[in-house]
Design a protein that fits this description.
single chain; alpha/beta; Arc Repressor Mutant, subunit A; Aspartate Aminotransferase, domain 1; Aspartate Aminotransferase, domain 2; eight-stranded mixed beta sheet; four-stranded antiparallel beta sheet
Length: 493
Amino acid sequence: MSHTVVVTSLLIVLDRSSATPLYRQVYEGYRAAIVERRLRPGDRLPSTRSLAAELGISRLPVVNAFEQLVAEGYCEGLVGSGTYVTRSLAGELSPIDPSGSRPGKRPRPGPRVLSRTSARLVRAPAPWLRHFGPFRVGDVAIDQFPLKVWSHLLARHGRTMVPSLLRYGDAMGYWPLREAIASYLRAARSARCEAEQVMIVSGSQQALTIAARAVVDPDSEVWVEEPGYWGVQNALVASNARLVPVPVDEEGLNVGHGIERAPRATAAFITPSRQLPLGTTMSAPRRMQLLDWARRRGAWVIEDDYDSELRYATFPIAALQGLDRDSRVIYIGTFSKVVFPSIRSAYLVIPRDLVSRFVMVRRTLDICPPISSQVVLAEFIREGHFARHLRRMRQLYSERRRVLVECLHQELDERVRYIGEPAGTDLVVLLPKGTRDLPLSERAAEEGLWLMPLSDRYLGRPARQGFVLGYGGTSVEEIPPAVRRLRTLLDQV
């Protein structure tokens, strides 16, 4: 086979002012030429000495570039003969420029087979979640967080960190944090748990995913609230479960309806303390009915207690887990709403006989949770900062909710009505019959008003139309003008 000696000046253009090292520029130039088939298998590269002379640089960068090309398999060196483009490069390689800005014919892409499961996930990027601003659901008052205290704890941890904390941690999480959480749950949520049952995870979404994989088989029926939380739905879809929407009324999940529709379901995923998104509280008779069904059926109840600490008219509602005498409830809590969202720290309380199974599932996701944030959070709780911050946030969110309700009455009067307990960081506004929420939410997003449509939370045909208004990240000063903008939007219907 004859070999072509490459004319180097057509391939390599060096930029001596660039921060990219010279050897890297030489390497990338040749790699691009090979990938784009401007150099073909068997073509010969010039000697390192001649290329260095032509480029006006020392020989060392050229040697390093050629060695990298050989190491990655683009080129091969033949003793006594030189360096060649690897003869065994098979098929057509796609251009390395993903923008397609390079001239020339682009090769036909190969098949792109994706899983059917990923196509079933229930939420695409939505206009009302693009940015943060008035009524954005899921936002919290991050400007009120005691950042100086947190920064001090972070700095102290950095100064006193020991090498052992750099190793892989326990899959269940940092022991002092688990102890602090168990103590808090027993006192504040009437939960029945010990530190041995607490697993620290990276947010409640991971908790839902672990629970779904641990107790739900493919094609098994699972109750979900209707309307409900998209994160629950996606966790179950990813486990290939069969979702059974069970309607929610003023007493919470309609257990009787669930038994009629799917009596042999293997699990129920619920938000009993404050239903997401309607804000209702599950009544005591419904709680007992649900636990009785789970015991008789041998089913599991996954209790997502996502913002139970934020209650304003009464004391926090006791956790369903505390009523469970048959170890059928898997409890989930999170710090995202009461500390800050990006902490990505949540926890599971697992029945003792399931702990080892949950550990195995967890290790398929991320081995163990990050240690530094756990250490700092444990100190934040132990030193009383968490309790003080929580008291302040209850007062702050209570005031924001009060102002929002007053503005809704003043500006919209009988045109809309709101539902939900005085709790959490959002409330639901129901629209008049015949008014569709989705187009209004899309129009509002264009004007910087973030209204989540209630219909978006239904798996089936929406029974109600309305908006979920988040006030956690909306200040008292922002609420009146935002409600006036909402009124203007409704006036245009």
